[in-house]
Fold this protein.
Amino acid sequence: GARVPLRGQVEDFHDAAMVIAEILGSEDSAAEHLSKCIFIVGMGGNDYLNNYFVPGLYPSSMQYTPEQYAAELVRSYTQHLT
């Protein structure tokens, strides 16, 4: 399948939650239903493999130490998820 950026995944989840709210009759019912679901989130792999470790295409590894890049990813993910 196609790669969907985190921002797009969050937007898709929001859209799906709104559909669930319509089906169940309220946002509270949807929230209760979704609170019983298990979510698996895998993130960061492509950011490292396709960005940080490919200095010929992306300057990330020249701009950041591994620790700084990890902190930048955490900051970016936090921004998307809050």
